Amino acid sequence: MTQLFIAFGSLLALTGVVARSLSAHALLQLLEARGKLDNFNLAADYLLFHGLALIGIAILCHLFPEGKYHHAGWAFLLGSILFQGTVLTKSFISIQPFGFLTPLGGFVLMAGWGLLIIAALQGYFAGR
């Protein structure tokens, strides 16, 4: 699982860097014209942050294999696909019937951070 989280975390971070680069150059005028530049950049930043967080989760999974850190990792991955994916998509096309996926993804990302807190506290109180 460690290598999987590192690979997916790197992919998310790479996508965030590429998206930020595109929004500053190739897509700047289009995103400004659509009024979506800020949303696009927010999604790109969240991709980068959660990609790095997922790599951190991989390290925790390696250091503490008995811990439950993998739950947070899966939440970060799913939440990123739902939240950042739909925000980036909505920058270009309307996904009206699937608009509920954005807040659902945000909730899953928040749950991931909560799961990380829980896993760390369980490890602390178990003496790991």
Which outline best applies?
elongated
Task: Kindly report the average pLDDT value.
Answer: 95
Radius of gyration: 16 Å
Strand content: under 5%
How many beta-strand runs? 0
Residue share in helices? over 70%
Structural class: mainly alpha
Distance between the termini: 20 Å
Q: How would you sum up the major sheet?
A: none
How many separate helices?
A: 5
Order of H and E elements: HHHHH
- Low-pLDDT segments, ≥5 res: none
Q: What number of domains?
A: 1
Give an account of the 3D structure.
The relative contact order is 0.15. The chain has 128 residues and is an all-alpha fold. It is elongated and about 55 Å long. It has one domain. The protein has 5 helices and no strands. The longest helix has 27 residues, at 37-63.
Helices, strands, pairings?
Blueprint: H1 2-24, H2 28-34, H3 37-63, H4 69-90, H5 101-125
Helix pairs in contact: 1-3, 1-4, 3-4, 4-5
Name the features:
single chain; 128 residues; mainly alpha; 5 helices; elongated
Concise structural overview:
By secondary structure, this protein is mainly α. It is 81% helix and 0% strand.
